[in-house]
UniProtKB/TrEMBL annotation:
GO annotation (BP), single: negative regulation of double-strand break repair via nonhomologous end joining
Chief place where the protein resides: nucleus
Subunit relationships: Homodimer. Interacts with TP53BP1 (via the Tudor-like domain); interaction is abolished following DNA damage and TP53BP1 phosphorylation by ATM. Interacts (via the cytoplasmic part) with SDC4. Interacts with TGFB1I1 and PXN.
Keyword Metal-binding set for record: no
Keyword Protease appears in the UniProt entry: no
Protein name, as recorded: Tudor-interacting repair regulator protein
Subcellular compartments: Nucleus
CDD domains found in the cross-reference section: NUDIX_U8_SnoRNA_DE_Nudt16 (cd18869)
Record key words, sorted: Nucleus, RNA-binding
Taxonomic source organism: Pongo abelii (Sumatran orangutan)
């Protein structure tokens, strides 16, 4: 998904070495023209500029919210929208109300649509809204009191958009987690197109995460043989 239609061949090649899937990006208009055989998922990335420093020396830069789901996977707040009864935004806001509390997004927050791969025909829509750090914190507090907290949503998490000196701590370690469906790709895509992380840092973090996962697998193989 990162970075179909958003970078040169060199960038795509680097991303491919970091094992990032590329999904086809389509416009909102094209997505709305898809037939009834397609399902629509809508998710929201809420973020805020963060001037803080970890340990007084590592810039936080931005705070991005994701959530731990009931299935143990990380994802963005949102879900499937039944286009027979809801517009994309109305359906998204309905789901957000269950998991985050009082928050409403509009078409102005729309960021992208991508076609997913696999047996299920799903178009994944991503919305993004920048808040103040205070507003973001208010969302975190509200989420604890929402209907789905502790059930379908096990808690919100902030994405660490920095890399520590060992080149693994922070964002690379975060990318080593398990993500639902297109969530990881949507995160990387948004960080790229919203200019929240330099392209070379994305590549480095992806490569470090892939290498960590490879080494972990190699340690398990002798024990299982």
């Amino acid at each position: 998904m990162l970075l179909s239609g958003s970078g040169g061949d060199g960038v795509s090649a680097k991303m491919s070495t970091a094992a990032v899937p590329e999904l086809k990006q389509i416009s909102r208009v094209e997505a709305m023209r898809l037939g009834p055989g397609w399902s629509h998922s809508c998710h929201a990335m809420l973020y805020a500029a963060n001037p803080g420093q970890l340990f007084g020396r590592i810039p936080m830069r931005f705070s991005v919210l994701m959530q731990m789901r009931f299935d143990g996977l990380l994802g963005f707040p949102g879900g499937f929208v039944d286009r027979r009864f809801w517009s994309l935004e109305d359906g998204l806001n309905r789901v957000l109300g269950l998991g985050l509390g009082c928050l409403r997004l509009t078409e102005a927050d729309y960021l992208s649509s991508h076609l997913t791969e696999g047996p299920h025909r799903v178009v994944a829509h991503l919305y993004a809204r920048q808040l103040t750090l205070e507003q973001l914190h208010a969302v975190e507090i509200s989420a604890v009191h929402s209907r789905d907290h502790g059930l379908e949503v096990l808690g919100l998490v902030r994405v660490p958009l920095y890399t520590q000196k060992d080149r693994v701590g922070g964002f690379p370690n975060f990318l080593s987690n398990a993500f639902v469906s297109t969530a990881k790709c949507q995160l990387l895509f948004a960080l790229k197109v919203l200019n929240m992380m330099p392209e070379e840092k994305l590549v480095e973090a992806l490569a470090a995460a892939t290498e960590k996962q490879k080494k972990a697998l190699e340690k398990l193989l002798p024990a299982s043989s």
